[in-house]
Amino acid sequence: MKNFIEEVTWRGMLHDVMPGTEEHLMEQMRVAYVGIDPTADSLHIGHLVGVMLLKHFQIAGHKPLALVGGATGMIGDPSGKSTERNLLDEAALRHNQNAIKGQLARFLDFESDAENAAELVNNYDWMKDFSFLDFIRSVGKHITVNYMMAKDSVKKRLNGEAQDGMSFTEFTYQLIQGYDFLHLYKDKSCTLQMGGSDQWGNITTGTELVRRMESGKAFALTCPLITKVDGTKFGKSEGGNIWLDAERTSPYKFYQYWLNTSDVDAEKYIKIFTFLCKEEIEKLTAEHQEAPHLRVLQKKLAEEITVMVHSREDFENAVKASGILFGNSSADDLKQLDSKTFLDVFDGVPQAEISKADLDAGLDIVTVLNEKSGFMKSNGEARRSLAENSISVNREKVQEGFTLSTTDLINNEFVLLQKGKKNYFVLRFV
What 3-state class would DSSP assign to 384? Predict the structure, then answer.
C-alpha cells in the first residue's frame, strides 16, 4: 500500500484526521467515501478537492466511493450556510447523478476489474423506503440532542447568523449523513469518510453511529477549504461558478481561470489540483521563483487541469485562443475558433448586429465602420483611420475600397474589426 496520509499531507490537502487513520489505511485495502451535492448537473471546481482526494485514495491502492446525495439533496446541508437551499425532486436528482458520474469517470476508474474500482452510490436508494418512525426509533435514539447541538454548524445557525433560525429538516441533516456512513460501513465495509473541513461535525456523527450501533471503528478525514490569497472566493469568477461542464464554462474560460491565479495561489494549487510528483513540483516552483514573470507554475497548472477535465485538444485550442488577443494571430487562427470560444475571447468587446443579406452584394468598409456598426463616429474618421493603415479586418490590414463579403465570416457569423493594437469591435451577422 502507498501511504495515502503522507501523500495528501505534503500536498496541503489535510486539515483534520482522526487518530489511528494512517495505521488503519496501511494495514490493507480500505474503502472511503466523499459525499457530493447533486443540486446541479455538473460539478464545479469547488468539488475538485474531494474528487482529487478520492483519486489519490485509489492510486494508493484503496477503493473510493463517490456518494451522490440524492436524499440529502432533498433536505439541504446547513454546514457553512446561513440560509436553506432549494430542494429538488427525484427526476432532477437522477438526471444530475448521471451527468456527475460522467465527469467523475475522467478522474476515477469505475470500469476496470480491479478490486479497488470506484463505485457511485446514491443515498436516496437506501433512504427512500425508510419511514420516519423507523428512522427515529432505530437511528435517532442513539444520538442525543445535546450531541447534535454541540456541532459548530448547528450552533452558528442558532446563534443568530441566520434570520429564520434553523428548521427541523436541516437539524436532522447530520443524522441522515451519519446514517449514510453507517449504511456504507455495513454494506460496503467503508471505514473512512472524507470531506471539507466544514463537514467535520457531520462526519464524526457517522463515526459515532458506527461505534454505538455496530461497536465498529470508523474514521474521519477533512481537507482545508480552499481560499484565494486576495480574499475572493475560490472557484468563482465574475460570471459565477467555474464548472467542469464545457457548456457551462468553456475550456477557454476554464483555462484562463487557472492561468490567471496569483503566484502564491499557483504554488498551493499545483499540489492540490495536479498529480505531478513532489520532485517535479519543487523543480517548477524553483524555476518560477527565479523568473516569476514567465508564469511557469500558472502555465503548467492550467495545462494539467484543463487536459484532465477536458482534453489535450481543448487545452491546445485554449492556448491558441489566448494568443489571439496578445499574439500575432491571423485570419486563419480566428476561423479555427468555435463560436463560444470566439465570444469568450472577445467578452466585453462592443458588438453590432448586421443583416447577413447585406453581405450578398458586398459591404463597403467605410459604411461598415460608421453607419453599420458605429465603431467610427463618422465616414471622415473611418477614411482617416484607413489612410493611416490602422484598420484590420480579422487581423489583416485593409484600405479604403475594401468590401466585406461572406468569405470574411468567422463561423459563418462574426467579423472582427480592429483599430490599432487594442481597440476591437465584433460584427455579428444574423
Answer: helix
